[in-house]
Design a protein that fits this description.
Strand content: 25-35%
Order of helices and strands: EEEEEEEEEEEEEEEE
Number of strands: 16
Structural class: mainly beta
Distance between the termini: 23 Å
Shape: elongated
Helix content: under 10%
Number of domains: 2
Largest sheet: 8 strands, mixed
Length: 239
């Protein structure tokens, strides 16, 4: 059964933690309406004001032949492709069914074992399967957008929130996704400009209508025009 949105939290929005205290992706709304998602930094630290980007899926962990599983099962095994799986790499991510029996369904992953390339990973799901899986079913391992966040310069990737404080590598933090935020600016942007990820890692920049049609919008320039390289006010619209 799906859990209700959480209303109380053990970690402040300006704190980081080496240990997980909330479900990755948990939505938090402050009294002034700002929105945050619980996230985990990837292999590199993230500076305050930097826009974080979602991790990419592992291609050889997609569209895999399922191991048969019955309705109600919460522990499944799955043989992966030619890339190893680290322990809990897919924690709070998703098992999605791409084709055949169960197509269109997904379940949140609580934990996973480690395995070598071509090995078998054991998944523990947050909720039981509602549809049986067969050997014809094709399933994919999809990481949480907020698990392994990086201040990436891959502009076409999915932006997932701005770090409100300096975040050490591998630490958990609340990434801001909505409302007034302080963001690293790339280039100049007048008030009211739609903002997209910039070429400088962790930055936002004004959308160029002729060049940026393939980039996701992260927010709107707010209150003051941008100065290149400064952290500027913006209104985030990711949530």
């Amino acid at each position: 059964m799906a859990q209700p949105m959480k209303l109380s939290f053990t970690q402040d929005v300006t704190e980081t933690s080496p240990a997980k205290r909330e479900a990755v992706g948990a939505l938090r709304i402050t009294a002034d309406g700002r929105k945050f998602r619980y996230a985990k930094a990837g292999a590199a630290a993230i500076s305050a004001g930097s826009l974080g980007m979602a991790p990419a899926a592992v291609a050889v962990h997609q569209n895999l032949a399922a191991t048969p599983a019955a309705v109600g099962d919460r522990v499944l095994s799955l043989t992966v492709g030619a890339a190893a799986v680290a322990e809990n790499a897919y924690e709070d991510g998703y098992l999605q069914v791409a084709d055949a029996a169960g197509k269109g369904r997904q379940c949140r992953i609580l934990s996973n074992t480690a395995c070598a390339a071509g090995g078998t990973v054991v998944l523990t799901l947050a909720e039981p399967l509602r549809v049986a899986l067969t050997t014809a079913s094709k399933v994919s391992l999809v990481p949480s957008p907020w698990g392994g966040v990086a201040a990436s310069a891959t502009e076409e990737n999915l932006p997932v929130g701005v770090a409100p404080c300096d975040v050490p590598a591998g630490h958990y933090f609340f990434a801001q996704t909505g409302g007034v935020a302080c963001c690293l600016a790339a280039g100049t942007a007048p008030v009211g400009s739609m903002l997209v990820p910039g070429a400088t890692a962790g930055s936002v920049t004004a959308m160029n209508a002729s060049l940026d049609t393939d980039q996701p919008v992260a927010g709107v320039a707010f209150a003051a025009a941008f100065t290149d390289g400064h952290c500027q006010p913006c209104f985030l619209t990711l949530d």
